[in-house]
Specification:
Structural class of chain A: alpha+beta
Strand content of chain A: 15-25%
Number of strands of chain A: 19
Largest sheet of chain A: 7 strands, antiparallel
Shape of chain A: globular
Helix content of chain A: 25-40%
Oligomer: homodimer
Distance between the termini of chain A: 52 Å
Order of helices and strands of chain A: EHHEEHEHEEEEEEEHEHEEHHEEEEEH
Chain lengths: 430, 430
């Protein structure tokens, strides 16, 4: 159930929805052909923002959490998608080794893990959990708040394979984003499938590259539908390491902010959108070291809390991660008065459901410093797959979910492009 | 909702269910490996009979009807399975031509067609209906009882392709079982995928071959689980054309009946089943020309209604279809007092749901002359995919549905073997 979901859809998004619904066969065919050329990540979640006038993915998590938020009636879909994925990767697989996120694990995360085990177990694999944490030196039972327990076992690394005591998996499923670095025991596993691969980790991925791929995919897709790609991705600029030091860092960042804001202002004018644009500043690399920062004007930089401002500038010094300045996409969806952000969950090429992150007491265009705020998950009640034909755009939840599924798959495809390009073992065909 | 479903599960079936649940990963792996070697039919329904002491498929329909009986919450599963199927057959497909059963079409059948169109449409194809009927000479709208309408269009046959006016499909989906013969306009379509292929039609298929393949698959599977294959398939004997004429026909049939009954009696004795076995006599070929006949003793043949008896014997004369004598599997499931037969619905290798055929006023071991009786469909309420671990065998509906899904896939695999062997275009590797 998605109660009291109020969407203020206006103008372009209605056109966008209408266009997407009427083009469904062409869209599905386009995805089929893209997936022939590009391998989707095994699993992912895509964070979307529905601005009313545009719908864009703002992040893709390749080590997703939150699977326990999926509505129970969607579970068979996840299992079926997992079956299809295994079939392609390793049909003869018996055992799946799942490696959870390191270190303190919230009760939310444990429920997610339990669900993940369930999905791959129902898909027909023996699933066991191997912990990267140094303090797991013997099998350790951990209680899951909603009932049951999980057994975390110490990993055993042989010269060529990774496993557990008495458990030799064909595939290793990684759920740690490697933001804290890549443990040696995950490297050089040439006999096993490690999914996602190490170069999907936050030690390697760059948000600027993610953003460039999202733009490329949005352009290809928009061309298919004869529409403006800006409606499907956030504009961005990367402010890179090495260009800047000292006072020059602040200047580079200001330039980046100005460049993005002026592009967005032009678009707002074209579409007669009567709102004040903002940007979100993110570290280009890494999952956690820097909070996301939202500003409406390059001048606001000077007024930022000094430690936050310094952290941003430090990211631009030699050795820092660099920064990405991304167009802020306001969220127009509300549950009661709270801001709701859709998260779409994908396994292989299939959308298997999703949920809303409901931020209590956040305005739609709030500066996003508060983005890490607590949220309440709210499962999508209906399937994304079954749009209702002939329904007025914006009027039907399933239609909106179909559109979400399309935009989430664009983000997934962009991630596939990204991983292909960053694969250190890729064969190059010239 | 499956209300008041009472199952009288005893002895072996509880063991069977327990064995199947504990072996789930091995079973799923076995199926994955089988599907690597054998292509499943695009869609099918499998009729099962749950006797309490055994669970066996009694028929597989490769031109299935009844998709509108699927519970609405199962629809996304069907769509996802259809997507996976299309991806393999013809990823570049835009158009699907669906050929319905030749008329007259019941209101049930129209609802089924509407659902089938919906599934493949949501999977991303333009679906249109081409009629084999001679009286459809112009596009004809047919109202569907539950709302909406379907447009039946005349087929256009070119020298190499089949289509409709302004509609050139890459794949032709056949929903007529060809029991009335194979229309010339479906032959020699070497540029398009015709699915299921012509040799899946009832003009070609033989129930004796189906039965032999079911036995072969049951044996392979039973070996994997270390159990008696008889628990998973009905014993049968074919009484073939050409062997018999006149009085000799009756004698051949009696021998067939005796052979099956004595095998079944032995099994009943082994398992201490205190029931009286019966057999079902079916035409070996063809979908409709002969009603199924149930007898408990070869001597009952003499007491059959004379026209029915003559029809059986005629089937054994030169030019007749031959007969199959199949072990009758009593049904132990009841909805209130009515006998309930599970029907499992499959798309590609995936179980996408199912329903019960509820026969009011039929006893479980009733002679099956009444099998064509009216029935009420009752959708499976829960997914077959999600057995509950640790639940007592026989106690949980989802566990039973998982078992049904396994046995239905055995039947599907047997059909895949059958179609491979009967494929006139098969390449032979020696």
């Amino acid at each position: 159930m998605v109660p009291h979901l109020i969407t203020a859809l206006t103008g372009p998004i209605n056109e966008l929805e209408a266009r997407i619904l009427e083009s469904m066969p062409a869209i599905e065919r386009w995805f089929r052909l893209e997936w022939m050329e590009h391998t989707p990540p095994l699993y992912a979640t895509a964070d979307l923002r529905n601005a009313g006038f545009k719908l864009a993915p703002v992040d893709v998590d390749l080590f997703p959490a939150g699977f326990h938020h999926l509505a129970p009636q969607m579970l068979p879909l996840a299992v079926q998608a997992a079956m299809a994925a295994i079939e392609k990767i390793c049909p003869e697989a018996k055992n799946l080794l799942l490696i959870p996120r390191r270190g303190p694990r919230s009760s939310f995360y444990l429920s997610h893990l339990q669900r993940l085990v369930e999905v791959f177990n129902q898909a027909g694999l023996n699933v066991r959990l191997g912990a990267l944490d140094d303090d797991i030196t013997a099998p350790t039972a951990v209680a899951v708040p909603e009932g049951g327990e999980l057994l975390l076992e110490p990993l055993l690394r042989g010269p060529r394979r990774l496993g557990l005591k008495g458990f030799d998996p064909c595939t290793v499923l990684l759920n740690d984003d490697l933001g804290a670095g890549t443990p040696a025991l995950l490297t050089k596993l040439h006999e096993q499938y490690l999914l996602p691969p190490l170069h999907a980790g936050w030690g390697v991925r760059q948000r600027s590259v993610q953003s460039r791929n999202a733009e490329e995919v949005a352009k290809k897709f928009a061309k298919l539908l004869g529409m403006d790609p800006w409606l499907l991705h956030p504009v961005s600029a990367s402010v890179a390491v090495g260009q800047a030091n000292g006072a020059h860092a602040a200047e580079s960042l200001q330039h980046g902010i100005d460049a993005v804001l002026s592009k967005v202002r032009r678009k707002y004018k074209d579409y007669a959108i009567n709102e004040r644009p903002f940007v979100v500043i993110k570290p280009d690399r890494g999952s956690t070291e820097l909070r996301f920062v939202g500003v409406r004007d390059a001048k606001e930089l000077a007024n930022l809390e000094p430690t936050l401002r310094q952290a941003l500038l430090d990211a631009l010094e030699r050795g820092g991660s660099g920064l990405l300045v991304q167009e802020g996409v306001p969220a127009c969806e509300r549950v009661n008065d709270a801001l709701a952000e859709p998260v779409v969950c994908l396994i292989d090429r299939y959308v298997v459901g999703g949920w809303y992150r409901v931020h209590a007491s956040l305005a739609g265009d709030a500066p996003l410093t508060a983005l890490g705020a607590r949220y309440v998950p709210l499962a999508f009640a209906e399937s994304h797959r079954l749009p209702r034909r002939g329904e007025k755009p914006g009027a039907s939840a399933p239609n909106r979910f179909y559109m979400y599924g399309v935009v989430a798959r664009l983000a997934l495809l962009a991630a596939a492009y990204e991983l292909e390009a960053s694969d250190p073992d890729a064969e190059v065909y010239d």
